[in-house]
Amino acid sequence: RVKLMKTYSRKGFGICIQDLPPVPRVEDLVLCWWEDINTDPNWVDIKEAELNKPTICISSGWIISSDEGCYRIAADFNFDSEKEIEDCSGVTTIPICNVIQLIKIEL
Question: What phi, psi does 97 have (nearest 5°)?
Fold first, then answer.
């Protein structure tokens, strides 16, 4: 669970929590552990190369889509003047077959 700590102000302008845009689709906030390729561009002994393993990664954010065999997780959003989502960034596209564990985060 996430707890709101306090209201911050910057340069004398207070920001009231009630004036903030809503959190995007709370039910889609996740932590995702997934497996990625691991490559080494250097010349290595074949015995050493045989020990290479895939890399385990973790990503967090909101699932913005889960079609075509992929999860698309966005980390950041901005809002327009009507407090509607305008853009997102930090989008990680993960093949569903690479997902090890997906946990929904409760707010």
Answer: -65, -15
